[in-house]
Design brief:
Blueprint lengths: L1 E7 L8 E2 L4 E8 L1 E6 L2 E7 L3 E4 L4 E6 L5 E8 L1
Antiparallel strand pairs: 1-8, 2-7, 3-6, 3-8, 4-5, 4-7
């Protein structure tokens, strides 16, 4: 497993990437994350909520709020 912390300013995104054979969980600490799956807007995740990204999934996280988005990601190989 590995984990990390991200901070995105309003309007910023991580950039589309693929989980490959890994699973990923994203826990929003502050702000609102807009989650894109395969380039399509999938859902919005509010603070204190989690989203699960399954293996082999192209996804992107964008800050859709007017304040910084802060979240933690956990990746399981």
């Amino acid at each position: 497993m590995k984990a990390g912390y991200m901070r995105l300013r309003p309007g910023e995104s991580v950039g589309e990437h693929n989980t490959e054979a890994k699973e990923e969980a994203i826990v929003v600490l502050e702000g609102t994350a807009e989650v894109f799956i395969s380039g399509e807007s999938f859902c919005r995740v509010a603070e204190k909520h989690l989203i699960y990204i399954p293996p082999h999934t192209s996804h992107d996280i964008k800050n859709s709020s007017d304040r910084d988005l802060r979240y933690v990601y956990i990746v399981k190989a």
